[in-house]
Structures are given as C-alpha cells and as structure tokens.
From TrEMBL:
Protein name per the record: Tripartite tricarboxylate transporter substrate binding protein BugD
InterPro entries linked to this entry: BUG, Bug_dom1
Record family assignment: Belongs to the UPF0065 (bug) family.
rRNA-binding in keyword set: no
Segment forming the signal sequence: 1-24
CDD domains: PBP2_BugD_Asp (cd13576)
Keyword Signal in annotation: yes
Organism: Bradyrhizobium campsiandrae
Xref: Pfam families: TctC
C-alpha cells in the first residue's frame, strides 16, 4: 500500500514538473509588467525603461512599466510580493528598496525571502547637487556653511529607504553636518524643487541629475565615486573634494515574487543579460553615467549576495531610523 502511494505521489510530482516546464517553454505569451517603486523620471524609472525595452525585444513581448510610488519603495514591493509567481510581474529595486527598507520599516508585509532575484542590471553613482543660487562654490564652503547653519539646509531624496536617501545619509554622516532630509515620492519631484530653489539640493544618482547639472539648472557639488564621470568631467570625486569617506556607488536589480519557477527566472535573466549588452542600452547608460554589470555579475546568485550584504550593512547604519 505504501509503495502504491509513493508511486502515485511520484507520478503527481512528475506531472506538475512537466506542466511547469511546458509553461516555462511558452513563457511569455503576453506582456510583462515591471513595477518601478518610484515616480516617473527618477533613476530607477529611467534604468527600468531602458532595460525593459530591450528585454521585451529579446523575449518577443512588451514589458509595461508601472510606477508605484510611496514609502521609499515599500508600497511597490508589497504589491510585487503579492503578485502571481508566474513571471508576468517583476520589479526593479536597489539597495534602498530591497535592503535598507527592512531596517527602516521593520513591520513590512514582506521579507527579503519574499523575492526571487533575477539579475543585477546597472551600477549607479551618487551625486550631491545644489540649487544654482546656493551660496557655496565647492564642498569645503558647503560644509562650512552647513556647520554655521545647523539644521537649516534641506536636501531632497526619493523617500526614506530609497537609494537616494542612503546617499543623503552617507553624505551628511561623512561630512559631519546637521541637515534636514526631505522625502519625496521619487527623485524627479525632488529635483524639480531643487531646480525651482524650493529646497537647497538633492541627493541623487548620476542617471537622473547629470543633464540638469550640465544645463546649469542645478549646481553639482560632488560625486561619491573613485573616478570622475565622463558625462560630468568637471565634477570632483569625494576624495578630490576632500571627503573620501563619502561613498555612493549603488546597484539596480530585477526581482520576481517568491515561487517563480526557476525556468522562468532563467528566461528573464537571459533577457536581462541580452538587454544590457545591446548598443542601445550601452549608449543610454553611458549618457546617464551608469554602468552595466560585468558578465560574471549577471547571475541571480550575485544579486542575492548584494541583498544579503546590504541588509546587514544598513541594519547597522540606519538603526535610529526604524519606524
């Protein structure tokens, strides 16, 4: 009797495996939704749209962008975590949305284990930019001004828990200044207010702020990288500006809901790899001072290691920000 039950169970498992395999082979049969955790126009949105277009070409189906802003990206990830694990809903995230958020919002309805990593798709570089009429011409003068006016400088970011918020935190900590960090529903509205001198500056990624700096709509102060950016050759690195402790090099990755079949993850990973190697994405990334991952960094395992590393990193850095 036991042998009969085992055989029936094995047969049932085999049927399920065959069905899953067949489903994966046909994937995708309709458009895919890519959730972006911020408003349109910000770094994650620009990178998502750039990569999604070429992934769609590789998969033979369009990828539709859905912007779900709020709570530093956790609103979007909550939605993504509840989606059917069938590959038709994926999300783009970063160290803020997929690592720091667990310290800042410890009662979230999802955990790092709620997501299956697909692939890292971009490396980004953080920049501090000021309103064009701010009374400081370089980082040294800015820090002196901030220390003479504690709490009076306000810097915008894309919401508590976002990668831009982490740029802000890293910067004010390294500079040893007291500044007010103002959260928005995305990087774009924060930048808009900086351009309009409604706030003193923004903590942003080169992908979304470079053009405004080059057009002199805002004033670039410093980039938290070890080398100058080709799109902003006059913007000093943190070491050149006298603040080597300020480091702001981030990542963007794609995630699917937990339980998404490995075969589908593999198809999405392959499409992401193909996308970032296209001339169209390389050119767009170069324009945005964004870098594609190295070939050996495209695996789901590498992205998982980044999440695990950064969850611990920000647990220590952001303990005082826990809600």
């Amino acid at each position: 009797m036991i042998s009969f039950v085992v055989k029936r169970l094995s047969a049932a498992i085999a049927v399920v495996a065959l069905a899953t395999s067949a489903f994966a082979q046909d994937f995708p049969k309709r458009p895919i939704t890519m959730i972006v955790p911020f408003a349109a126009g910000g770094t994650s949105d620009v990178i998502a749209r750039t990569v999604a277009e070429q992934m769609g070409v590789a998969l033979g189906q369009s990828i539709v962008i859905e912007n779900v802003a709020g709570a530093g990206g956790s609103t979007a990830l909550a939605r993504a975590s509840r989606a059917e694990p069938d590959g038709y809903t994926i999300a783009i995230g970063n160290a803020g949305t997929n690592a720091a958020t667990y310290t800042i919002y410890p009662k979230l309805p999802f955990t790092p284990e709620s997501f299956a990593p697909i692939a890292m798709v971009a490396k980004t570089f953080g920049i501090i930019a000021l309103r064009k009429d701010f009374p400081a011409k370089d980082l040294k003068e800015f820090i002196a001004y901030a220390k003479a006016n504690p709490g009076k400088i306000n810097l915008g970011h894309a919401g508590v828990g976002s990668s831009n918020y982490l740029i802000c935190k890293s910067f004010v900590t390294a500079a040893g200044i007291d500044a007010t960090l103002v959260g928005y529903r995305g990087a774009s509205p924060a930048l808009t207010d900086a351009i309009g001198s409604q706030i003193d500056g923004v903590c942003d990624a080169a992908a979304s702020v470079s053009q405004s700096i080059n057009e002199k709509l805002v004033k670039g102060l410093v980039v938290g990288s070890t080398v100058r950016l080709a799109t902003l050759p006059d913007l000093p690195t943190s070491a050149e500006a006298g603040l080597p402790e300020f480091e702001a090099q981030g990542w963007n990755g794609l995630f699917a809901p937990k339980g998404t079949p490995p075969e589908i993850i593999a198809k999405l990973n392959a499409a992401a790899r193909t996308a970032v190697e296209t001339d169209a994405v390389k050119k767009r990334f170069a324009d945005l001072s964004t870098v594609a991952p190295d070939p050996d960094e495209h695996t789901p395992e590498v992205l998982q290691k980044l999440v695990t590393r950064d969850v611990e990193k920000y647990r220590k850095m952001l303990a005082d920000d826990a809600k």
